[in-house]
Design goal:
The chain is built from 6 helices and no strands. By secondary structure, it is mainly α. The protein has a domain at about 30-125. It starts with a helix and ends in a 6-residue tail after the last helix. The model is unreliable at about 135-163 (pLDDT under 50).
Length: about 160
């Protein structure tokens, strides 16, 4: 009987020890990338998808690096959830400036393609948020009819241009 109890306790301890490591693997935790690594990754993705010239690639990297450094500063400035609205405002401003910089770098055809890619990514991200088990889903309220012009402007302000 003692052997069974010892065996059972060993199994429980092993399970608990392994359970501590599992959440990190399941969440897909990645090492924190530096702004330079993020900018390089984003530049490579944009270069591949839009066929950037060497000059455009250099400019996109500079714009992405500037954006990522500013975002890192904002994350350090507001490490807690207490200042969430201030952090959100600053992040939106930084991203909007990045989009404006990109529009100055890209050709009209590339701008159109990039805008579509960002729109598709937002749709995909919204779909992931809805399926996230921890987030409480609110019931949709009455929605106003969509205004095509407002939607067009909203794309640039709220775009999520990180990787």
């Amino acid at each position: 009987m003692k052997k069974i109890q010892v065996l059972f306790m060993a199994m429980v301890i092993t399970t608990l020890a392994l359970a501590q490591e599992a959440p990190a693997k399941m969440r897909g935790d990645k090492k924190q990338l530096t702004p330079e690594e993020r900018a390089n990754r984003q530049t490579e993705k944009i270069t591949t998808s839009l066929g950037l010239s060497a000059d455009q690639k250099t400019k996109v990297y500079a714009a992405a690096l500037d954006k990522d450094r500013k975002l890192q500063e904002v994350r350090k400035k507001y490490p807690t959830e207490a200042d969430r609205s201030k952090k959100k405002e600053e992040v939106r401003s930084i991203r909007k400036n990045f989009v404006n910089s990109m529009n100055g770098i890209l050709t009209p055809e590339q701008q159109t393609k990039w805008k579509e890619q960002r729109k598709d990514k937002r749709k995909h991200m919204k779909g992931e948020q809805k399926s996230h088990p921890r987030k409480k889903q609110e019931e949709p309220t009455q929605q106003k009819p969509a205004d095509p012009q407002a939607d067009d402007n909203d794309d640039d302000e709220n775009s999520d241009v990180d990787d």
